[in-house]
């Protein structure tokens, strides 16, 4: 993993805020996380590294992993492990044509969001 850059973390946070229907500002994010908006701004303006507990709260509220916030290397994903398991189970049980169409739809959606899922399902045929 690379160097932790607080400014990059805030840039990712702001990107997620612009894409969010629920969170409209750093202030509203900070309020939901139970931290001050100044704390988040200090990560950028004073290049202060966030503590893991604050970063964890922000990641949870935004629905992303801490790794993605810090390094930008994980997928922006709001899927629970139960949903992931169900998707994999349904994919594995589906007929080939249905798998193909499901992948087309998911790839189109991911391209519009500019991110592809990092997790692979067992039995994925890669079509």
Please summarize what this structure is.
The protein is built from 7 helices and no strands. The protein is an all-alpha fold. The chain is elongated and about 55 Å long.
* Tally of structural domains: 2
Rg of Cα set? 17 Å
Largest sheet descriptor: none
Please report the distance between the alpha carbons of the first and last residues. Answer: 31 Å
Uncertain stretches of 5 or more adjacent residues: 115-120, 122-127
Query: Level of helix content?
Result: 55-70%
What structural class results from the helix and strand content?
mainly alpha
What percent of residues are in strands?
under 5%
Task: Write down the secondary-structure element order.
Answer: HHHHHHH
CATH topology category name of the largest domain:
434 Repressor (Amino-terminal Domain)
CATH hierarchy class name of the largest domain: Mainly Alpha
The count of β-strands is 0
| Average pLDDT for all residues | 80
CATH homologous superfamily label of the largest domain = lambda repressor-like DNA-binding domains
Tell the overall outline: elongated
CATH architecture of the largest domain: Orthogonal Bundle
What is the count of helical runs?
7
